[in-house]
Amino acid sequence: MKNISHKHLKRPPYSAYLCAALCHPEKWPQYAGTSADGSCVSIFLIVGSKAWEKASTLENSHLFLMLPPGDDPLLYDWKPLKGHDPIIAIIEGDPPSEKEYYDLASALIRDGVQRFTRPGKDGSAIRHLSEEVIKCTV
């Protein structure tokens, strides 16, 4: 998957917003999930049937991208998330199917995300890890 051409991939909704915010680390402390010293930010990925509605309420308070409901995550370029692990899913409305989550995790890892965390059906956290992370923990 690493040799995929990104030429035909779409930018996820809110990419311009996220990229603009990431260019100004001095402003990171204003966003939810920023470390106490302001050096690390939490980036969220909004998913689910009501993702559009949720995303509109988070702008200017959270750093995030969004997967439009029903869209194939493999058709998006998730590179803006690289280097900001872990990426944390926020579900709004009906959650994606397990196959959609698998495809999303595959697309994120393809584009350089090392850790993706999402809620499981029972409320537990499910972590998707890149091969590099798994090799380091063995």
| Number of structural domains | 1
How far the N terminus sits from the C terminus, by CA atoms, comes to: 23 Å
The SSE string, one letter per element, is: HEHEEHEEH
Strand arrangement across the biggest beta sheet: 2-1-3-4-5
**Percent of residues in helices:** 25-40%
Strand content: 15-25%
Task: Please work out how many helical segments DSSP would assign.
Answer: 4
Structural class: alpha/beta
Gyration radius, rounded: 14 Å
Largest sheet: 5 strands, mixed
Task: Tell me the layout of helices and strands.
Elements: H1 15-22, E1 43-47, H2 51-58, E2 63-66, E3 87-91, H3 98-110, E4 115-119, E5 125-129, H4 131-137
Parallel strand pairs: 1-2, 1-3, 3-4
Antiparallel strand pairs: 4-5
Kindly summarize this structure in a few lines.
By secondary structure, the chain is an alpha/beta fold. The protein has helices at residues 15-22, 51-58, 98-110, 131-137; strands at 43-47, 63-66, 87-91, 115-119, 125-129. Helices cover 26% and strands 17% of the residues.
Key descriptive features of the protein:
globular, about 140 residues, about 25% helix, alpha/beta, single chain, 5 strands
Description of the molecule:
The protein is an alpha/beta fold. It has one domain (37-137). Helix content is 26%, strand content 17%. It has four helices and five strands, in the order αβαββαββα. The protein has helices at 15-22, 51-58, 98-110, 131-137; strands at residues 43-47, 63-66, 87-91, 115-119, 125-129. A five-stranded mixed beta sheet has the order 2-1-3-4-5. Strand 3 (87-91), helix 3 and strand 4 (115-119) form a beta-alpha-beta unit.
